[in-house]
Amino acid sequence: xxxxxxxxxxxxxxxxxxxxxxxxxxxxxxxxxxxxxxxxxxxxxxxxxxxxxxxxxxxxxxxxxxxxxxxxxxxxxxxxxxxxxxxxxxxxxxxxxxxxxxxxxxxxxxxxxxxxxxxxxxxxxxxxxxxxxxxxxxxxxxxxxxxxxxxxxxxxxxxxxxxxxxxxxxxxxxxxxxxxxxxxxxxxxxxxxxxxxxxxxxxxxxxxxxxxxxxxxxxxxxxxxxxxxxxxxxxxxxxxxxxxxxxxxxxxxxxxxxxxxxxxxxxxxxxxxxxxxxxxxxxxxxxxxxxxxxxxxxxxxxxxxxxxxxxxxxxxxxxxxxxxxxxxxxxxxxxxxxxxxxxxxxxxxxxxxxxxxxxxxxxxxxxxxxxxxxxxxxxxxxxxxxxxxxxxxxxxxxxxxxxxxxxxxxxxxxxxxxxxxxxxxxxxxxxxxxxxxxxxxxxxxxxxxxxxxxxxxxxxxxxxxxxxxxxxxxxxxxxxxxxxxxxxxxxxxxxxxxxxxxxxxxxxxxxxxxxxxxxxxxxxxxxxxxxxxxxxxxxxxxxxxxxxxxxxxxxxxxxxxxxxxxxxxxxxxxxxxxxxxxxxxxxxxxxxxxxxxxxx
Length: 600
Ligand code: ADP
Known about the structure:
Elements: H1 8-14, H2 20-54, H3 64-109, H4 115-118, H5 121-162, H6 165-186, H7 188-213, H8 215-220, H9 229-262, H10 265-281, H11 285-330, E1 349-356, E2 366-373, E3 378-382, H12 389-395, E4 404-409, E5 412-413, H13 419-425, E6 426-429, H14 440-445, H15 453-462, H16 466-471, H17 489-503, E7 507-511, H18 519-533, E8 537-541, E9 553-558, E10 561-566, H19 568-574, H20 577-599
Helix pairs in contact: 1-11, 2-3, 2-5, 2-11, 3-5, 5-6, 5-11, 6-9, 6-10, 6-11, 7-9, 10-11, 15-17, 17-18, 19-20
Residues 117-118, 358, 361, 365, 383, 385-391 line the site of adenosine-5'-diphosphate (ADP).
């Protein structure tokens, strides 16, 4: 096993697959192009020397135009190579970005369904897209610039000795000072401050998103931004960190950096003035002026190169955040497919001493839960909010896997059933079952792609959706979500029920959740429920006790434990939690009826 931590860029490059080599080729071309682009400066030096030697007989300097053409040829070939280099790095970068997206999505496809509850699909896509975009800039541009700048500095060192080392050193000194100033902002304890500053920025962005999501609540309750404590604190924290970072860390080094980046002359001119008398005295003034011209022109490219390093180093920082984002997606848990899948032997559902704790949670959401739903029976899960009803139901279609104990379908642990077989066996209708932005036909057919139009229609009728189809302009083919075709919560739920009915699975896991249904919808939904559950094994999360009276078995879950189980008659007779809930429920119904009567 390799223990050493791989460089972030190397890890990102692995995503380039077969095009990884193109990155290296691109970088090599960029290095050569940088060398070629230096040559014109040497030509300028040669031309200047010839001119000065010939002065004032300028026409005697015959090689000047030759040098001009050579410079031109070098410059053009430099540009062509740079272009070719960027082409290579871009091809590799595009492949990397597309592989990051593909591999991320492929990985997420294997994640348990529950993963998508806590990681909205938009968030996952956002993470992958941002990572892919950052990687693109880094691999396509920044790396080439970094290599180019390194080559530039190395060639500056060579040129320093090639012409006049003293003037070369003067140019280099300015560059060195600005690089030191730049890195002093990023290294040591400043790196920690920089990280804190970026973390504060991230927190502020997140709190901002939460705030925007909460705007409806803010408007309804007439609150101000100050009511969003977390957002306000995030802004204040960011502003104090930003101020501290700018004032105490960046002010001096950044000023030094900019001064010396733009002012390589600062040292060059005094050094030249110092050297001039000597050059005059020993008759080498022409060479001296040529050297000076060379360095004066050459120093201008130093500032461009330094600016590129600035961008490139921020690109390198992006690499680690991009990698972090990719890893968040790639580290999502995956459902292990069984190596020797077994087929369920019946439609029985059984929980055997099941415990489950959510990732990052301290207390279990379910502990030692055991119950059986015989084929064709309806089992209702009842209990206070947070009792574990949804969690228990989610374990059957493997939204999550039990932490200990076993959830069995037809006598086989769900983890040992081929996921496709399990999905064929179980239909589930949960509160957040979403409809796609597609036609009603496609939405219903999602559960059984080979179903005919007639079968879809029959399912919709069984789910009491006739009124919905009648009012939609294109009936079955109406696109949901397009202008004017938004469905109410209750209507969406009926379409979701039609989808489950079409699936015709022998086991149904459903969340009664009629919370948002209006009375008209509610009657229809109850009818649809009746069709869906007839003759099947049903595990139902019940919110209102009126719907559980007829259940074969009622399981009362409180704080993850089964506190009671039995039929309605048994439980009301035993005088426990269910009996108390039943009394309260009846009182509430009575109260509602009385107050409605009084209102009449
Ligand atoms: P119920 O459906 O009875 O209201 P749940 O099954 O939703 O109860 O919740 C049981 C417990 O698990 C609660 O304490 C809840 O806070 C916790 N819980 C539910 N979903 C998650 C989740 N995705 N991550 C962490 N904890 C969760």
